Amino acid sequence: MSVDSGLGSRVKRAFETALAPEDVIGDPIRCRSYECDGLTGYRVVPELVLLPRDAAQVAAAVRVCAEHGVPFVARGAGTGLSGGALPVAGGVVISLARLKRVLEVDPVDRRAVVEPGVTNLEITAAAAPHGLYYAPDPSSQQVCTIGGNVAENSGGAHCLKYGFTTNHVLSCEVVLPDGSLVTLGSDTGEQAGPDLRGVFLGSEGTLGITTKITVRLLRTPESVRTLLADFPSIAAAGDVVSDIVAAGIVPAAVEMMDTLAIEAAEEAVHAGYTVGVPAALVVELDGPAEECDVQFEQVKQICDRHGCTRLHIAGSPEERAAIWRGRKAAFAAVGRISPDYFVQDGVVPRTRLAEVLDRIAGMGAEAGLRVANVFHAGDGNLHPLVLYSAAAGETERAEKLSGEIAELCVELGGSLSGEHGIGADKACSMPKMFSRDDLEVMRRVRSAWDPQGLCNPGKVLPTPRLCGERPGRYRPHPLEEAGVIERL
Amino acid sequence: MSTTTTIRPTDLRSLRDAVLDTAGTIGIAGAGTAADWAGPLAPVDAVLDTTGLTGVITHNPGDMTVSVRSGTPLRQLQDELAPHGQHVSFDAARIADGATVGGLVATADAGPAALVFGSLRDLVIGVTIVLADGTVARSGGHVIKNVAGYDLTKLLHGSHGTLGVLAEVVLRLHPVPERAATLAIHCSLEEAAEHAATVLGGPYEPAAMEWTSDGVLLIRLEGTADALDARVQRLRTALGTGELLDLQAHSDQGADRDRTEQGLPENLGTGPEPGDVPPAERAAPPSDERPVRRIGTDESAVRRDEPWERYASLVRGAPEFATLRIGVRPSLLPAVLADLPTESVTAGLGTGVATVALPPAAVAAAHARVHAAGGTSVLRSRPAGAEVPAWGPPPSAIAVLRAVKAELDPQGRFGPGRFDPWM
Ligand SMILES: Cc1cc2nc3c(=O)[nH]c(=O)nc-3n(C[C@H](O)[C@H](O)[C@@H](O)COP(=O)(O)OP(=O)(O)OC[C@H]3O[C@@H](n4cnc5c(N)ncnc54)[C@H](O)[C@@H]3O)c2cc1C
Ligand SMILES: Cc1cc2nc3c(=O)[nH]c(=O)nc-3n(C[C@H](O)[C@H](O)[C@H](O)COP(=O)(O)OP(=O)(O)OC[C@H]3O[C@@H](n4cnc5c(N)ncnc54)[C@H](O)[C@@H]3O)c2cc1C
């Protein structure tokens, strides 16, 4: 909640001049819609919400912020899971929701130029008539915006083979914290001088606001082959992943689910998963047809070799969609087997998957809580779901376990976050992964871009204020409750 | 001019001490293969030679990652990875001359494989750097998926030794393809552009595609031994032409595969090919580290690699010309190149990246032409003693660049001159 007496009418008028009066929202009730993102345990009502209509208005709004020392937070669709778009008390939220034009799709050079409020899936929709698509595919892709993806360097199931947002963004037009409008990156992967675009990508809205993005488009693969395989143990499924890698195959996706996750997903969407099996893998290959066929045979043999108890090969696009529906439903579905849950997002080196899952199970048993696992096995990105009941007073224990799991990932040589970012949620865990000097250098970089410290302050890097606070109880995102999006 | 000391640290601690114990300006030097790229280094008080910082720190074959000290020649790293059937999917021309991992990152270099895998910025997943005040900082890590904190690697990529010293680098690896084949088509640049459109517009998934001013378009396909023949035939049919250069010659054994992938003959060693531009005298490492490369005795091996060897030597440039690296939208590339008085050209028709040799006097206008097309350009090499502008018009974010430099190296110790007149 904002505590001070407000920004004052002079500042508000300045914003109204920069935009249009009706695009500056001051009504606390309406502002409340912006009080949190997908991490609903943290809430702060912003002083004002600004709804610019173009890049010039974004720049004008940021100039007002710079002039009056007003902290600002950019907001896309608000699906972030780490509190990146959490407003700052006494500050404004700048929503990019109205900048949603697809400015250009160029099938010859295979790229698209879009405004930040365009959703991830809309880019692919615009590219599809040309046989092209935009590769990074977060599970929230039908609602999350490309501006948010750029800020979070978002990933998805297909990032093992195709890379993350940073590998697909050629350039960004950015409003810097002083209100100037610049372009980072260029039309090609080639660069002259240090890669500022690469620094901006994944900076979680702390270095500026992007108002136009040029992305690479890829040709839709000629062939896609998908299988669902059951295994007698997590270890056996893990060995399959290792052997696929050892065979020199880079699948488009390799996803793993454990008993609990399978049970929840199957109950929810009846996608044809086998209830009761210890582990299931979804493996997808894509590419030229000849290549895909050869490697798919190899993958099937590897599955057999490791005691696969059931191998289901998608025989049609519908069957493929069903396999993915099961996988993607798992998160929301966990709500059916537990009143509450936390989603964690840690990464371990792929070779330590079995070890980390074992330890997580042990930690869960010790805490007296169940942990369901659904994850990107190909790149070691875990999403342990810590199940608990707030009504039964388990919240604190669950929160602690979830945090310990993230830190366990770091201990095993991994990362605190694989795709959801640090935001407000994990800023206080950053010292577990980085030394004081590491963090100090990041702070220096940030200060070069934002000397006044007005651009999404308090996120990513630990601050005493943030680390002293405790978040409120976790609540599902309204979009999830409405069944619009699912967690992954 | 004061005398320059050269310091050659052998580990992270001595590297840090070297930075702390020296006063004044420092030139960071790797193998020297790009010593004259970008702006000329102003006279410096000390040269920090990274070639003592070598060796793999950890290679995790199952995770397909490797961490390596920055002075390690990439060629040597590839040799160590080859028995595991893995490599860094990166094939810049100067690797053959012994370019170091750190130098390759610092110069934002890349080769034809960038069409699929990008430049090193896309393959580096972690980094340890030493700043001018002796601060040692790390970002990224050993997992390919990691979005914790700022990606400092990107900042150092293309920094030409001006922001910090790269001490250690963690790289993402890929499997060495079982087989590779190159289709060569003799054609003009305009015809090549048409072929490129066909290739990119279909399901052929080329691994590399480059036209050179020898009048040849090279299209490389890579994949499994069993599927490649059919893919190549299909591509050839679609193009209605093409000389198949190396389909039969490729063996599918580890190290051999790797070399082929890099466009190097086997039994190689390490020195320059006859006809290659020798790296600057001053930067040549001690001769015992540079056995002369023997050309493979296997005739077919030599033949199959020839076009890519020739390509690499064009990229390396010629001593009497300036070499400019440019990047523009791929479809604009032929028109931009047509406007430049080029002596030689290599053009990535899928990437939009070209390396051209020009008379030094034509470089300023070339920068302007590329800039007008919305592209970027960097000077790579210049004839000894020639004054040639290294950079075109500054980017719109130049103020951020200067601010970053001021934060990380407030006294301007590293690489003075490299970014003149930008910063
Ligand atoms: C032993 C030796 C002595 C030299 N003495 C002099 C001298 O007295 N006077 C003089 O003018 N030149 C000298 N040079 C060359 C000069 O230092 C080069 O211009 C050097 O700065 C670039 O060498 P090189 O790194 O290009 O090789 P590359 O490895 O190709 O490096 C290219 C670029 O990358 C940067 N770079 C390389 N490695 C790293 C790293 N690990 N971290 C960050 N940046 C990196 C370099 O600074 C350079 O800009 C010397 C070189 C060597 C090897
Ligand atoms: C059900 C569910 C599933 C998810 N699955 C995935 C997944 O598979 N992979 C994944 O990576 N993420 C996933 N996420 C997380 C989230 O969707 C992504 O992080 C997404 O990129 C956020 O986009 P957004 O538009 O909602 O951004 P917001 O939540 O509005 O903002 C996120 C951050 O971006 C900044 N920002 C937004 N727009 C801009 C801009 N124009 N310029 C600068 N900064 C800006 C904000 O300040 C904030 O720091 C999931 C979330 C949910 C709820």
From TrEMBL, chain A:
Its cofactor is FAD. Keywords: FAD, Flavoprotein, Oxidoreductase. Residues 42-220 form the FAD-binding PCMH-type domain. One of its GO terms (molecular function) is FAD binding. InterPro entries: FAD-bd_oxidored_4_C, FAD-bd_PCMH, FAD-bd_PCMH-like_sf, FAD-bd_PCMH_sub2, FAD-linked_Oxase-like_C, FAD-linked_OxidoTrans_Type4, Oxid_FAD_bind_N, Vanillyl_alc_oxidase_C-sub2. Pfam families: FAD-oxidase_C (PF02913), FAD_binding_4 (PF01565). PANTHER family: GLYCOLATE OXIDASE SUBUNIT GLCD. This is Glycolate oxidase. It comes from Pseudonocardia hierapolitana.
Automatic annotation (TrEMBL), chain B:
Residues 287-301 have a biased composition (Basic and acidic residues). PROSITE patterns: FAD_PCMH. GO terms for molecular function: catalytic activity; FAD binding. It holds the Pfam family FAD_binding_4. Residues 1-176 form the FAD-binding PCMH-type domain. Residues 246-301 are annotated as: Disordered. SUPFAM superfamilies: FAD-binding/transporter-associated domain-like, FAD-linked oxidases, C-terminal domain. This is Glycolate oxidase FAD binding subunit. The lineage of its organism: Bacteria, Bacillati, Actinomycetota, Actinomycetes, Pseudonocardiales.
